[in-house]
Design brief:
Layout (H helix, E strand, L loop, with lengths): L1 H14 L25 E5 L2 E5 L16 H36 L4 H24 L3 H15 L3 H9 L1 H13 L15 H11 L4
Antiparallel strand pairs: 1-2
Helix pairs in contact: 1-2, 1-3, 1-4, 1-5, 2-4, 2-7, 5-6
Length: about 210
């Protein structure tokens, strides 16, 4: 039963078309300038016009200091679990973009519903087996990472796609197994270790 929760969450997340909180937008190139081309902006600073440019954010990470073997084992286990489910969170974001792009070209409501039904079947066939292999801990992390990537909780996604009654039902089931579909991702608080691991993944540490 608990595995079915994660199947439904990912399924509904990728099929949801309420993208009000979506983090990414499509990038469209409008010229042929090389990607490394930099345009300096003129900015008035105290009456003097100076050239200025934005630079990428730099993340500085300190070492973990003295940690016990037990703490290292917990961190290594967390690393394993995050690496296990992070690709699925990225798939959710990618699929949301795909669905949104397709729906944008559809004006007929029946056509939209038919597309979503077929899309749902396709996603279920593709990811059902993988979702059934997740552990409870991995499922909890995935719920948080879905919020990180879409800025929508799993509860909100289910509510949008299936309605409030269904969302409340699955929230109740999730709570029985110690999971909260309304849980938000907190990169500066309790989820800071997960954020660090994702940074390491994205920067090739693994």
């Amino acid at each position: 039963m608990k595995r079915d929760i994660y199947i439904l969450i990912v399924l509904l997340a990728v099929c949801s078309f309420s993208l009000n909180g979506q983090k990414d937008t499509l990038k469209v190139k409008t010229d042929t300038l090389p990607e490394s081309f930099i345009v300096l902006q003129k900015v008035n600073r105290g009456g003097e016009v100076l050239p200025e440019m934005e630079i990428k954010e730099i993340t500085i990470m300190g070492n973990r200091g003295n940690v016990s073997r037990a703490q290292m084992r917990r961190y290594d286990r967390l690393t394993y679990n995050v690496r296990r489910v992070y690709p699925y969170a990225m798939i959710v974001r990618m699929k949301l973009e795909e669905v949104n792009l397709q729906l944008a070209s559809m004006t007929n409501e029946e056509e939209r519903k038919k597309f979503l039904r077929e899309f749902e079947k396709e996603v279920f066939r593709e990811y059902e087996d993988d979702m059934r292999n997740l552990t409870l801990t991995q499922g909890k992390i995935l719920i948080k990472l879905i919020d990180r990537e879409t800025r929508n909780t799993s509860y909100d996604l289910i509510k949008t796609y299936r309605g409030g009654i269904t969302a409340a039902f699955w929230q109740g089931i999730a709570r029985i197994f110690g999971t909260n579909l309304k849980e938000r991702y907190d990169p500066y608080g309790e989820d800071a270790p997960i954020e660090r691991i994702i940074y390491e993944i994205e920067n090739g540490f693994y």
